[in-house]
Structures are given as C-alpha cells and as structure tokens.
Write a structure and sequence with these properties.
Length: 332
C-alpha cells in the first residue's frame, strides 16, 4: 500500500469513495456531498493536497490536506487542516487511515505548520478514537456548527518544529560538503572508494549542475560544530538535464548524496529532505523517483522503505569494479 498525491485519472475514484463512505454511511448532511465530489477543484488548488492510498492499483483511501491560503480550509483559515478522510470498507483495520493521517501530518510539518487541525461529526466515533490515539486533542472551544445545522467537534495535533529545507547558499557549500563527507565516513560508505571523498566535498559543482538542498536550523537551536554552522543535512536533487543523473530514465527524478550530520540524526531531517525531493520531482512532471545506495547503508534503506520506495534489483549497478549500488524506486 502506497500513499501519494492523487493523479487526474484517479479523481473520479476519489469522488466515488468519498460519496460511498460519507453519503452511503450517512456521516454528513446531504448538502455537503457536492463539495466531497469536487475532487478536481481541490487537487488543482496549489495550497491543497489530495492524497490517495493505493493498493494493487486501486484507490482504497483518501484524505485532503489544506494549508493556509486555500478556500478549502475551514475556520480558522490560517492553519493546516486534515479533511475528507475516507477508507474503503474492505480496507479498514489495515492501517490505511493511519497512514493517510501521518502523511498529512508530515506534509504540514514540512510546510512549516505548527499544528494540524480537523473537525469531525459526533457519529464518527471510531475516527475520534483513532485521532486521540495519534496525538490529536479535543478542543471544545473549536467546535462549530455548519450552515446545515450539523455540529462538528474540533481536534488539534501539535507538530514538532522542522528545519527549513531550501537551496544551499554559497556560504553554506563548505558546511554541506563536510556534513556529507562525515556522514559517509561514519557510515563506512567510502570503503574502496576514497577518491569519492573529493566528489562529496565538491558542493559548488553540485549547486551549479544540479540542485544542492540543505536542511537548516534557522532558529539557531542546534549547533553541529564551528565548520558546519546550522546545516543539519543535505541532498542533491538531479533536475532534468543535470549531468548528475546516474540511474533515472524518462519520467523519473533522481537524488544522490543524502546525508545528515551526526548530531542531527533522529530528528527527521533525512525524511524531510526526501519528502522535499518527492514534491520537487512531482512538480517537475516526473512519475517516479529513483536512487542508488550502498549495501551497507542500512539506516537509509529503512528510511526509503518507510517512505514507499521499493527495491529494483535489476537496476543495481557498479560505478567501479567491486562496488555494487542498490537501486530503489518510488512512484509519485
């Protein structure tokens, strides 16, 4: 099962699922059903993400994340909201709803939001239990009544602060290179390829010929060391036409050299960098993202698999004799 952005060819399936769950189970007033069915308008709003859970090519769940600036956000308008969560009856109790909620929370955090809010009806008792289990807190003062007279309960989940993910600035090139080199050295990823260290340190070239991303603690709350400053992690995204492409084919994005400073590990920095790359590749019109990694990068393997990447053994390759790189791929 994979959670990703809904594709135009899936909009009708999303609308049908929402109608079947909310209308068929009489969870909302009938006046709300037309809004549920307007999937295309939500998906085309730049401040709204319509997500789907896909299993064996079929849409088995959906949720909508709205960010400030969209007309789809409820009151108050200036916060991230989880809306229109629905799971097909046959897919329930399989973790689909939880996966959709956690994806919305991760995206809201990546967007710099401090909270994720939602409203639900009194009849959605099972959903309310799930929200409480996933860290949402009832906020009675946020309860409200719809125009059709239906009372809604307010819930809010606090999100941990996230570092800023952006293009590296020239004064950060050296720090990004050092973070990459140290991460590779500590992970034992340079064995037999010591000359690759110079490539890892050549961040200026990556910034010119690809896209050098950094995760930066702009609050100044974490200092990794005098040389690194506030750079917590880095990755290189290979946009169309970049000479840094190694594995990708037509319609595929690619990234390389994901690294997190030792003092910043365990804070979700690597995940935020990968999520940013997935969104960037989607915006570039790609339908998938690929990467290569060493066999010993077990921590990275777990991250990629948790984020929906699959192993593609027939695309494994050797940059130099004796060093096999493992291929991973994720649809977006």
């Amino acid at each position: 099962m994979l959670v990703r952005d809904a594709r135009p060819s899936e909009y009708d399936a999303v609308s049908r699922l929402l109608g079947e769950v909310y209308g068929g189970e009489q969870l909302v007033h009938p006046n709300y059903l037309p809004a549920l069915g307007d999937t295309r308008s939500r998906a085309e709003d730049p401040a709204t993400d319509v997500l789907v859970a896909v299993d064996a090519g079929r849409v088995v769940g959906t949720a909508t994340l709205t960010l400030p600036g969209t007309r789809w956000t409820e009151d108050p308008p200036e916060e991230a909201m989880l809306r229109m969560l629905a799971v097909a009856p046959e897919a329930r109790r399989g973790g689909v709803g939880t996966a959709l909620i956690e994806e919305c929370a991760a995206r809201a955090r990546l967007a710099g939001e401090a909270t994720l809010a939602l409203s639900t009806t009194d009849s959605m008792v099972e959903a309310q239990r799930r929200y409480a289990r996933l860290g949402f807190v009832r906020v009675p003062e946020r309860d409200w009544v719809t125009m059709s007279g239906e009372p809604l309960r307010g819930y809010v989940r606090s999100l941990p602060s996230a570092p800023a993910i952006r293009e590296a600035r020239p004064e950060e090139y050296s720090a990004a290179g050092q973070v990459t080199l140290v991460a590779y050295q500590r992970g034992g990823l340079l064995a037999g390829t010591d000359d690759y260290a110079e490539t890892l340190l050549d961040t200026k070239r990556r910034a010119l010929e690809a896209s050098l991303l950094v995760a930066v603690d702009e609050s100044g709350g974490v200092v990794i060391g005098e040389a690194e400053g506030t750079v917590l992690g880095t990755a290189t995204y290979c946009p169309p036409g970049s000479p840094y492409h190694e594995l990708s084919g037509p319609g595929e994005g690619e990234f390389r050299m994901l690294a997190v400073a030792p003092a910043a590990q365990g804070r979700g920095v690597g995940e935020l960098l990968v999520r940013t790359i997935l969104r960037r590749a989607h915006a570039d019109g790609h339908h998938a993202v690929v990467l290569s990694t060493t066999a010993g990068a077990h921590r990275a393997h777990r991250l990629y698999e948790r984020l929906g990447f699959d192993r593609v053994p027939d695309r494994d390759w050797q940059p130099v004799p004796g060093l096999t790189l493992l291929a991973y791929r994720r649809e977006i």
